[in-house]
Amino acid sequence: KSTKEEEHHNLNTAHLRAHRLLTEANVLVAEALLECEDGQDVVTSETKDVLVSAEERIDYARGYYDKARDALQETVVLMGQAVAATTTMGKDLETEKENICFCATLLMGVGETLAAYDENNNDDGGDDG
User: How far apart are CA 63 and CA 80, in angstroms?
Assistant: First the structure.
């Protein structure tokens, strides 16, 4: 590889990693919000300041999930571009590809949790006739 090609590869990999980390951050926030106890505000551990009210918790989680889903789509596009732009997939790009797949798995888990929440809420509030 030429030095210029290596620099381009490193820049693509760094950009790809940044997008993946943004996706992971959003997924982890959504996941953490979903793990909080139903009916309880989300508060800081030290000052007990309310971060998210109990009524808004699922909406916030869904917002972070949506951001993560959008970011993952962009990340997958960048990954395809990075792979297409290189003659060989280096170890760093291969590792990033694996990390992106893991992130997608996390995102699916959050999506399933939200779907189950929606299903349970529809069952609880259904028409009784």
Answer: 26
